[in-house]
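> example.struct
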């Protein structure tokens, strides 16, 4: 009986073993069969991927997306540029300068196209600032209920250059379809998104993709925190919505990398919603300011300071008499938290402070001498392009050069190799105004006006108001990256 059981066991096991060996030998002998099996499994996996139906979403959201066209008048000047005559003997320079303000000027119309989206039934529309900047006329093209488009003239309620957001308003006889902001912070990388816009002036165009990344810094401004998507975005899409599968706006399409493919960027709704609310209430955006220079914390700095990790914002310098100095902040402090929220890097600190209202108090946790310390700082107001609130040449006192200037700090004077109290720093240039047309840039230093040194905003304003207005032209001596040069701006009625 024992022998029979053993025999039965052997007879059952050997065929199974042989079958396994036979299969292995078959796969080795015919690799094509193995490859076909792998491909079959791959096709089977792909077949399980379900692409969502975008049609209902497009039909609903698309009605609230509008095309925007703008026009602005610019003066195109003839004649030879004044810089050609610089370096000549003084008597010749003076001879040619007398014609500087007499050069012929011809009006020219510049046109541009973009996209926007309606956010309320009463006609508020969001777009990019660069779509409407300097425009004399803004037209919004809406989809009619009968399938025919119609245009309405839009009023620019307010703009924010630093986040590239603008708020418009149209008056409509009937309630308009609109889109609501969603929460971009809750979006996960890999989720489906739609972009609707007006690329290259082609009209309503829909593209689909996924959210590729969050928190991108593309060096376009101080508050870069972009969403990245592979949904196709092209020129003309600017200002259009990036929509999630719930039909909510989670971003404003803003930028692309021209040399790349499938790389577009959108302003997150968590930022845009707050900016739009300020523009709607106050027609402008105000931001907090503490008066420090900041930088990221690298591994070596973290080790030197005894930090447990390389995160936070290192305070390079504390400007005297500014909010940070008054609140007890010191050079070398590392800001770890603002109002209990972790600060990962210098950009995060900048955004956190800017999000708070001027005059409000914030609690800041800093790392100092190997310990965490808590500071309470009352915020000042941040001016355009950084810095404390500076001077603005008011239009009622002088022709609108389109310049915003302020005195240089000691550190800026030292960097520019200028004596303290010398010159004014250009902190804002308004598109379409004289300064922009004369290629004056933010960061330029004005050394003199009509050969008279300027040391304060009041001095500059007085020269423009009196001497320059009488002559009909102002000649500015500028310094840029160590180079000194002149620009002559004709003060015509068209420039006011």
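> example.seq
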């Amino acid at each position: 009986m024992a022998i029979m059981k053993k025999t039965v066991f052997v007879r059952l096991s050997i065929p199974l073993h042989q079958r396994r060996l036979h299969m292995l030998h078959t796969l080795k002998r015919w690799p094509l069969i193995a490859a076909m099996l792998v491909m079959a499994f791959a096709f089977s996996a792909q077949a399980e991927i379900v692409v969502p139906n975008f049609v209902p979403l497009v039909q609903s959201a698309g009605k609230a997306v509008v095309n925007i066209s703008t026009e602005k008048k610019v003066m195109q000047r003839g004649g030879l540029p004044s810089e050609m005559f610089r370096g000549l003997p003084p008597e010749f320079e003076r001879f040619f300068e007398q014609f500087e303000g007499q050069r012929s000027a011809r009006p020219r119309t510049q046109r541009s196209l973009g996209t926007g989206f309606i956010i309320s039934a009463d006609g508020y529309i969001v777009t990019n600032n660069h779509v409407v900047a300097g425009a004399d006329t803004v037209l919004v093209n809406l989809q009619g209920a009968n399938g025919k488009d119609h245009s309405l003239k839009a009023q620019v309620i307010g703009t924010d250059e630093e986040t590239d957001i603008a708020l418009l308003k149209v008056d409509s006889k009937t309630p308009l379809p609109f889109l609501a902001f969603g929460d971009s912070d809750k979006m996960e990388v890999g989720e489906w998104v739609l972009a609707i816009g007006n690329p290259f002036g082609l009209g309503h165009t829909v593209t689909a993709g996924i959210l590729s990344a969050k928190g991108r810094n593309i060096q376009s401004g101080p508050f870069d925190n972009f969403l990245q998507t592979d949904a196709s975005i092209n020129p003309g899409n600017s200002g259009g919505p990036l929509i999630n599968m719930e039909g909510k706006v989670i971003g404003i399409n803003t930028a692309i990398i021209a040399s790349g493919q499938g790389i577009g960027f959108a302003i997150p709704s968590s930022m845009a919603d707050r900016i739009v609310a300020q523009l709607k209430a106050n027609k402008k955006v105000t931001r907090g300011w503490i008066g420090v220079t900041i930088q990221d914390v690298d591994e070596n700095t973290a080790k030197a300071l005894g930090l447990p990790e390389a995160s936070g914002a290192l305070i390079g310098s504390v400007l005297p008499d500014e909010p940070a100095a008054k609140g007890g902040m010191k050079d070398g402090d590392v800001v770890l938290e603002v109002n209990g929220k972790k600060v990962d890097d210098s950009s995060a600190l900048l955004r956190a402070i800017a999000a708070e209202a001027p005059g409000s108090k914030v609690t800041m946790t800093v790392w100092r001498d190997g310990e965490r310390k808590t500071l309470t700082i009352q915020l000042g107001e941040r001016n355009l392009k950084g810095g404390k609130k500076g001077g603005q040449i008011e239009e009622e006192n002088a022709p609108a050069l389109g310049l915003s200037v302020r005195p240089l700090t000691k550190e800026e004077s030292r960097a520019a190799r200028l004596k303290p109290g010398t010159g004014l720093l250009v902190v804002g240039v308004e598109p379409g105004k004289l300064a922009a047309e004369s290629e004056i840039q933010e960061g330029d230093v004005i050394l003199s006006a009509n050969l008279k040194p300027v040391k304060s905003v009041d001095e500059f304003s007085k020269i423009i108001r009196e001497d320059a207005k009488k002559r009909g032209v102002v000649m500015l001596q500028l310094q840029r990256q160590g180079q000194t040069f002149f620009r002559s701006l004709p003060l015509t009625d068209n420039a006011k």
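> remarks
Residues 391-495 form a domain with the Pdz3 Domain fold (CATH 2.30.42.10).
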